[in-house]
Design goal:
Number of domains: 2
Distance between the termini: 36 Å
Order of helices and strands: EEEHHEEHHEEEEEEH
Strand content: 25-35%
Helix content: 25-40%
Largest sheet: 6 strands, antiparallel
Length: about 210
C-alpha cells in the first residue's frame, strides 16, 4: 500500500507496511540532490552500524505491470539518519521536513515509547529550549537489566543546551542518571536543533530495543 508525500520538487510514493511509512532510496536520493540511489547506498554502507533494526530493509515492489524490483527502503527515522550523514546543501531542510512528517504521522504510535516532540514554544526557534517529561512504562534491556525512562529534560547550560535522561527499574527506582558528556543519555550542543536531533536518534535506539544498551 502506498500514499504520497512531497518535499519541494520530490514526490514520494510512500510505502506503508507494519504501520509505518517508508521512503525508497531512489526518492531520498532525489530529494537530497544526488544523481541516483547509489549515493544513498554508499552513505548507508559507510554508516551501517548506526542504523537500528527497523530503520531500513530491502523489499520487492511491483512497478509497471507485473514487473517487480528489489529496492532499499528507509523508515522516516532511517531517512532522517541518512540526511544526518549527507553533506548536500539541501540536507538540513530535508531533515526538518522528515521530522515534521514523523511528528504528524507517528505520534500516536510512539506515545507510550518515546517522548512526544512538543509544539513550538519559542518565537525564535522551531525547537523548545526548555522541556521536561516524565514517562513511561515501556521497558528495554540496559546494563544487564530491564529499564524504562523515568524522566527526560532539556535546558540551557551556560552558552549551550543539555539534554538529560534518567532511567529507573520496574519499581521506578533510579538505576542510572546521565550527568556529563560521555554518559549514556546525556547530550550537549550549542544549537538547539542539533541537540534535539541527537535526542531523537537516541530515543529511536531505545524504541528499537537496540543491542546498544546491552
Amino acid at each position: 500500500m502506498t500514499s504520497a508525500l512531497t518535499f519541494q520538487n520530490t514526490h514520494f510514493d510512500v510505502v506503508e507496511q507494519n504501520n509505518q511509512l517508508w521512503l525508497t532510496a531512489s526518492e531520498i536520493a532525489n530529494a537530497l540532490g544526488y544523481a541516483n540511489s547509489n549515493s544513498i547506498s554508499r552513505v548507508y554502507a559507510r554508516n551501517k552500524e548506526e542504523f537500528a533494526n527497523g530503520m531500513t530493509e530491502e523489499v520487492k515492489l511491483t512497478l509497471s505491470g507485473n514487473y517487480q524490483k528489489t529496492v532499499r527502503i528507509f523508515s522516516l527515522r532511517g531517512a532522517h539518519l541518512i540526511a544526518m550523514f549527507s553533506r548536500t546543501a539541501i540536507a538540513k531542510q530535508f531533515r526538518k521536513w522528515v521530522l515534521d512528517v514523523l511528528d504528524n504521522e507517528t505520534q500516536s504510535v510512539v506515545t507510550d515509547s518515546l517522548p512526544t516532540i512538543p509544539q513550538c514554544i519559542s518565537t525564535t526557534s522551531p525547537w523548545p529550549t526548555h522541556y521536561h517529561s516524565n514517562w513511561n512504562r515501556s521497558t528495554f534491556p540496559m546494563f544487564g537489566t530491564f529499564a524504562h525512562y523515568l524522566s527526560f529534560s532539556i535546558q540551557p547550560k551556560g552558552n549551550k543546551y543539555c539534554g538529560t535522561f534518567l532511567f529507573a527499574d520496574r519499581n521506578q527506582q533510579t538505576i542510572y542518571q546521565a550527568k556529563q558528556l560521555g554518559d549514556l543519555g546525556y547530550f550537549e550542543a550549542r544549537d538547539i536543533e542539533e541537540l534535539w536531533e541527537q535526542v531523537i536518534k537516541f530515543c529511536a535506539r531505545c524504541h528499537s530495543k537496540s543491542a546498544f544498551f546491552e
